[in-house]
Design goal:
This protein is α+β, with helices and mostly antiparallel strands. 24% of the residues lie in helices and 25% in strands.
Length: 295
């Protein structure tokens, strides 16, 4: 990078990205940029449009494995300037860095239903949209009217839902786009029923998924008409460990850093699971966790 534009946000060089991920592993970012707001991010992108820089965006750090060699170029972390929820007449305008649980709780107070399941999904709204996050039979795509993005030139684009190729655990949104906000549907309900659903989903998560451990969330995408956890269990993977990485005792589709793992341990363990499942069942498991960076 020849020179950096003067921005209102924050630059951090050689920043350890392990501080920003749920696994608490990973190397350094050559440059971390935390924009103050939308205009700051647009200015940054427009200033660098002539430079061929790699730009990666990270959200809440869940469902993310950053390799130990770190990331060359720029890592963008959306901060407080993208953490807003505005209730309009016909839609909810929600910033990309809003945490899922905060969105779920705030719309509940407005007696808006359909977002209860997000209370159990770690991370941010932007990241959830990019991967079409879901659980317990729900997906975030069902609540979206449109998604607001920036391209690498800093141009603001609104993508209507019918132009987005949502699939299971994928939005199909161009990887060169940065999700900055979304317009969400308003479906009225009663606060009592909504809070009851939130409690039900949180109890389900507590019973079936590991919490208060270093995990990135659900590791592999469920293949069509199959469950990843069952394939993992039936193929005899449940006691596998690599270094400080292990399979969760509570849910075998979750990898756990016991405190001494690096990203390489976790990736090797994941690929070892994939290999054994394929050998046992002929089914290929695809990563649900996003893996980025250099080895």
């Amino acid at each position: 990078m020849k020179s950096l534009p003067k921005i209102k946000g924050i630059y951090k060089k050689n920043f350890s990205l392990s501080k920003l991920t749920w696994f608490q592993t990973g190397g350094k970012a050559e440059l971390l940029f935390i924009p103050k707001d939308l205009s700051d991010l647009q200015f940054f992108l427009k200033s660098l449009k002539k430079e061929k820089l790699s730009i990666n965006v990270i959200g809440g750090g869940s469902n993310l494995l950053i390799r130990d060699g770190g990331i060359k170029g720029v890592v963008v972390k959306l901060g407080k300037g993208f953490d807003f929820i505005n209730f309009e007449e016909k839609y909810i305008l929600c910033g990309a860095s809003v945490r899922n649980i905060n969105l779920s709780n705030k719309v509940a107070k407005k007696q808006i239903r359909g977002y209860e399941f997000l209370s159990t999904i770690p991370g941010t709204v932007g990241g959830s949209i990019f991967m079409n996050a879901g659980c317990f039979g729900n997906e975030i795509k069902n609540m979206i009217d449109s998604v607001i993005v920036l391209n690498k030139k800093g141009d603001l684009i609104e993508l209507k839902k019918n132009l987005i190729n949502f699939k299971y655990r994928s939005s199909g949104i161009n990887k060169n786009y940065i999700i900055v906000a979304t317009k969400l549907k308003i479906k009225k309900g009663t606060e009592t029923n909504i809070k009851r659903n939130i409690k039900k989903f949180l109890n389900l998560r507590k019973k079936t998924q590991p919490i208060k451990v270093l995990t990135g969330g659900s590791t592999f995408i469920n293949p069509p008409k199959k469950k990843a956890w069952k394939l993992i269990k039936d193929s005899g993977c449940t006691n596998m460990t690599i270094g400080g990485a292990k399979i969760s005792d509570k849910h075998c589709n979750f990898l756990v850093n016991t405190g001494k793992a690096n990203s390489n341990d976790l990736e090797i363990l994941g690929n070892k699971i994939r290999s054994r499942v394929y050998k046992y069942s002929g089914t290929k498991l695809d990563w649900e966790i996003k893996i980025i960076g250099n080895r």
